[in-house]
Amino acid sequence: MPSFAIKYVDMQTLHTFITLSEKQPLIGIPADKNGREAVRYSAVLPTQAVKQALKLAGAWADLNWTKMEKGLSHIRRSSKPTPPIEHL
Fold first, then answer.
1. Are 27 and 5 in contact (CB under 8 A)?
2. Each residue's pLDDT tens digit, 4-59
3. Which region holds residue 34: left if phi is over 0, alpha if psi is between -120 and 50, else beta?
4. At CA 42, angle to CA 45 and CA 30, rounded to 5?
């Protein structure tokens, strides 16, 4: 954990608290813990790859949303549905 992240446990409630800088993302990863669903959190410094991926969030801001939504809807409606998964 980076040095500027502060982690502490409230001993009365047994909650873990993490304080991060605004530029440090907190990433939640679903996991199985003794047969129960849990989320593991990781506080990481943004690497160049993460910074580039985050820039993609606004990359389509100049596109016409109505036209894109119609295109996505067409793809969804023209595709054959995936059959139910019966065995994992």
1. no
2. 455 556 566 666 777 777 777 777 778 887 888 888 777 766 677 767 777 777 77
3. left
4. 140
